[in-house]
Amino acid sequence: MTLDAQTRGDFPILERTVNGRPLVYLDSAASSQKPRTVIEAMTRYYETSHANVHRSIHTLGEEATELYELARDRVQRFIGAAAREEVVFTRGTTDAISIVAEAIGRTLKPGDEILVTDMEHHSNLVPWQVAARDRGVRIRSVPLIGEGTLDLGAAERLLNERTRLFAFAHVSNVLGTINPVADLVARARRVGALSLVDGAQAVPHLPLDMSVLECDFYAFSAHKMLGPTGLGVLYGRRPVLEALEPARGGSEMIKEVWVDRATWNDLPWRLEPGTPPIAETVGLTAAIEYLEKLGMERVREHEQALATQAVEVLSAIPGVRVYGPRRERAAVVAFAVDGWHPHDVAAALDAEGIAVRAGHHCAQPLMRWCGVVGTSRASFSVYNSSEEVALLAHAVASLGGAP
Amino acid sequence: MSSVTRPALYSEMIRERWRRPRFRGELPGATATAEDVNPLCGDRVRMQVKLDGGRVSAARFAGDSCAICTASADVLSEMVEGRSRAEAAALGAGDVLGVLQADVRPTRMRCVTLPITVLAKALG
Lengths: 403, 124
Known about the structure:
Helix content of chain A: 25-40%
Number of helices of chain A: 14
Number of strands of chain B: 3
Number of helices of chain B: 5
Helix content of chain B: 25-40%
Radius of gyration of chain A: 22 Å
Mean pLDDT of chain A: 96
Strand content of chain A: 15-25%
Order of helices and strands of chain B: HEEEHHHH
Low-confidence stretches of chain A: none
Distance between the termini of chain A: 39 Å
Oligomer: heterodimer
Largest sheet of chain A: 7 strands, mixed
Structural class of chain A: alpha/beta
Low-confidence stretches of chain B: none
Largest sheet of chain B: 3 strands, antiparallel
Structural class of chain B: alpha+beta
Largest interface: A-B, 20 and 23 residues
Mean pLDDT of chain B: 92
Shape of chain A: globular
Distance between the termini of chain B: 52 Å
């Protein structure tokens, strides 16, 4: 049985129609849909176990804390982290990157450099710009070559003893390029730079093992991996996290407080100020259990098959241009249609019940490299089928010369 | 499947002005120019106007934008000609939508209003 046939019935939202047509949801890279088990786990939590975590000495508080910390263990196992202390819950990928950028930012000195790449999502650019601002810090960027892969020779030249941190995406949210994380991390480490990987587009689609990637930080969001919105994860190698001076203060992150000073709690709570999104971590546990049951190797195979099919059928349509590598790409396929602005493409496809993303995909430097203001983008998850890719291609082929 | 005739995506006016805009281009002797982007999609619109004795004698637009935004910029450029600076600056989304003969969904309203705000900026 295909993966979509096995999973389709688990996603209640996919039963609805849009503009009189069955919904064809091809926007999972922006946010995935949620299986019933995730929705029910969060409802059950609110109906039976909700209280604040960590400081409530009563049954509900204990249950909530247990569920919250269980989610940490599940994440640790899912991403192959060495210890549960290496898993910090955040509000999302952007928030996870910002936590690191704020903390590292305070230690930056004039002349220091932050290295990024031309394919980054704004969330992996702007936090570094803010951190670098007014500190005499230079932001440099690895250019792209060919179909949209990183220029590794340039990366080697750009990394130098002034580089404090190299921030790059595991998977491009537009091109679908899968970057050689372990190799880039090793190059950064050779010059003494830290590495931060934006894994938002990788975690939902690829098997992961932090002990193989060896990056210092890895950030991702729950809502792109069948989990709820409002929750993200910052993975950090323990010695690096230990050295990170918290830039944000609040309840859970302290050991002892005076009016003018405080001491910090242990990891990971030191980096988790304020009441966390508790129900969302319960949902994330259910999402991870769902993905683990499917098997991430199988998820990767299914989605790569869809992406490969989409690249082939869309490229074959006259007037359609597909961006990114032809092979070995992740489950996002950006494309342009002659005579059509991406927003008009998305509106026309929506009229057929097909949901795609259109615009700059929060990657304007990459759009400039592509020479466009935006693209249309189809992205896939476990529930998408080969038939849906064919429907997309048929709808795109039927667009005609102009709106 | 392809033989099913679908209702047009946009109004006749929007489609016409997207395919054959009449006011796209450079305006020689422009007295005011403004430009802005739609942060939602990255669309960019520049509006140029020529003021003669407090009246708009000509307007042109340029940019990279969707059908709705392009049509909005095109009819707006047409509408302002001959109006006083204050009259031109007072034109709103309702006026433009009236000419476009279109209902636009809330998610696309910025496509209609971007040229209007850029024009207001140009008119100071």
